[in-house]
Structures
1.
Amino acid sequence: MMEDDRPRPIPAPLTPGADLSRLSVEEIEERIAAFRAEIARLEATLTAKRASRSAADSIFKL
C-alpha cells in the first residue's frame, strides 16, 4: 500500500492553546486557515448581531 493511499486521520478539534509541537508544517498551515475562516465567521455573526441590536434600539427610542 502506498503512503498516499492510507486514510488520513481525523483531525483533532481546533483548540486555542493546544500543543502544536507534533504538527507538521502542512497541519499548522491547515489550522491557520481554519482559524482564519472561523474568525471571519465570528466577525460576520458579530456584525449581524450589532445590526439587529441597532435596529431594535432605534425602534425603542421612538
Note: Residues 23-62 form one domain.
2.
Amino acid sequence: MARTELVSKAAKRKRAFWRTLMYIAIAAFFLWTTLPLLIMALSSIKEHRDAFQIPQVGDWLGALKIASFSPTFHHYTDLFTKEHFAQFILNSVIASGSASIIAVSLGSLAAYGLARGKIPGEQHLSFWILSTRMAPVVAVMVPLYSIFTGLGLLEPSRWRNLLGLILAYTTFDLPFAVWFMRSFFEDIPVELEEAAKVDGCSNLKAFRKIILPLAMPGIVAALILCLIFSWNDFIFASIFGQQAAKTLPVATSELHSTVSIEWGGILASGTLLVVPMLFLGLLVKKYLVQGMTMGAVRQ
C-alpha cells in the first residue's frame, strides 16, 4: 500500500514537472513571436529618439522604456501624405482578396471533384496538384513574366498590373486550396448527398445546399491562409506590381534609400501590414481552428 502511494506521488510529481515545463515553453514561444510585433507597434507611435534610445541601467530588457513614452501618430500621417500610399494599401486588398476568393472558389469545386469523383490515377493527380505549390517562386518567375508580357499585363497600367498580380497569386494559392479542402469533403458522409438526390437535388444543388455549409470551416480556413500568403508576398509584387500597382510590402521596402532610412515610416508601415491579418485571424479564429482540425481525423 505504501509502495503504491509512493509510486502515485512520484507519477504526480513527474506529470506536474512536465506540465510546468510545457507551460514555460509555451510562454517562451509566445514571447518570442509576439514581443517583436509589440515592440514594432509601440515604436511606430514613438518619436525617433524614444524608439532607439538605449535602456538605462537597471531597466531589465527595456521594460520601463517600452511603457514610458508620449505617443505620437505623425509617422502614420507622414505615410498617408505620401503620394499614392493609400492606393498601395488598396492594391494589396484588391490583389490578395481577389486572388484568394478565386482560388477558394475554383479550389472547392476541384477538391470536391477529387473527393467524390472516380478519377483514374487520382492519388497521382492530387500529388501533382500539390507539387505545383512546392515549386520555388523564382522557378516560375521567368515563365510568368514571359506570359504576362505577351498578354500586355506588364504595360504601365495599374489595372493590368493588378490583374497580373491576381493571376500570379492565384497560380500559387489554387493548388494549396485544392489540397487543403479535399480532406474536408472526404470527411462529409456521402449518404447526405444521396439523401438530397433522392429528394430531387442535382449534383450541383446538393453541393451548394448540403456540402458547402458543412465544409464552411475548412473553406474559411483556406481563404484566410490564401489571403495571408498573398498579402505578405513581396517577390511577385516587386516584379509585376509596377508604379501605381505597388502593394504595401513593396511600398514599405522603398522607405529607405542610399542616403536615408525612414525608420518611423517603416515601423508604421510594418504595423499596417501585420495588424489587419492579426485582427482577421482573431475574428475568424473559431472557423480557422475548426478548419485546421476538421480533416485531421479519419473514421
Note: The radius of gyration is 25 Å.
3.
Amino acid sequence: MNDMEKIDNYLTLLKDEIRNNSFGHLPLKYRVRLMRYIDSPLIVNKIFYNCVVKIKSLKEEIFQDNEILLQILFEIRDYLYNNKGDKNHFMMIFDKYKNYLYEYDALGGLLLSLCFNIATDASLMLDIAEYNEEDDNEYDFEMWNPDFFAEIIFSEGLYFIPSNSGSVEKREAYWIGVLEIIEKICRNANFEVAPLYYQKGMDENFIIPSRNQFDDTIEAQFKDILFFIVDCEPQKLKEGLEYKILFVSSVVDMFSILSSKGDVIILNTKNVDRICNEFRNIREQMYKKNSKQGAWFQVEILLKNKDLYTLDFNYDNLEQIPSLFQEPDWLLKMFKEYPRSKEYTPFWLQKIVGSKVKYLKS
C-alpha cells in the first residue's frame, strides 16, 4: 500500500468518525495521526491555509473592512504557494499582532495559529509535547490549531460548552469539507479551495487636510511647560546649547531631552511626571477644539531658549513614531480614546482601525 492509499483509507474512516460523533467533531487525535501520515509541514500548513480561506468566504465583510487580516492572509499564501519570504517573518507577525488580533476572537486566533505553525513547521500539530491523545478542549486556546479555530467559527460554538455548543450539522459539514480539501491537496500540492485577491491601498494618494487645533491659548501653555523644563533643574540645561525635547504618548508615555552636543538630559522622576501630565493635558485641550482632526501621537520641540523654539506635532506619520509605540493594539487603543474622522485618518491607521471603531463625522 502506497502513502496515498493509506491516506485515502484513513480519510474514509474519518468520515465515519465524524458522522458518528455526537458533536459532529473530529477529535484531535485523529487529525494528529492524519497529519503525521502526511508528514510534511508545508502540506499541513497549506491545509490550514485553506481552512482559513473557507472561513474568509463566510466572513468576507470582516476581511474587506479590516485590511490587516487580508494583508496577513495574502503574505501567508505568497509564502506557501510562491515560496516568497522567510518563515521567520511569520513569527514576527505573530509577536507584532498577537494582542491586536485577539480582539477578533476566534478569527484572530485562526490567523495567529497559522502564522505560528508556519514559523515552527506545523509544531502545534506535528510536534505536540508528550501527546497522549488529548482533545482540543484539554489545551489552552493558544495551543489550538487553525483547523479547530475554523471549526468554532463555522459551527458558531464550542463543542465542549453545552451552553454555547453551536451547530452539530454545520460542524459535521465543515469537517467533511476539510477532509475533501486534504485529499485534493495530497494529490495536488498547488490546490486552493478558492483564489485570493488583495489589492493594496494607494497610501501615497491620501492627503490629510490641514488642522487648526493650535492657537494662542495652547501656545501659552506650551511656553509655561517649557519655562518649567528649563528652570526645574537649571544646572542640567545650560545656556548656549540647543535641546531637542520629545514627548510621545499612547498606552504609556516617553519623554526625552537631547542636547546639541549629543548629551541625554535626565530629569528627576517627579519633574518628568509633571511634564508628561502637562503635555497630555495640552493634547486633550487641542483635541477638544476640533476632535474630528484627531490627537497627536508625539510632539517634538527644538528649544534654543525660553522664547525661541519650534513645535512639530505628529498626527499621521507612522515612521516618525518610535518603534515601541508602533504596536497595532496600542495604536488602536489610542484611536479608541481619540477617534477622528476618516478624512483625517492616514491609510496605515485606517488599516489598523478597520471596523473596530466608528469614525467621527466629517
Note: The chain is about 50% helix and 10% strand.
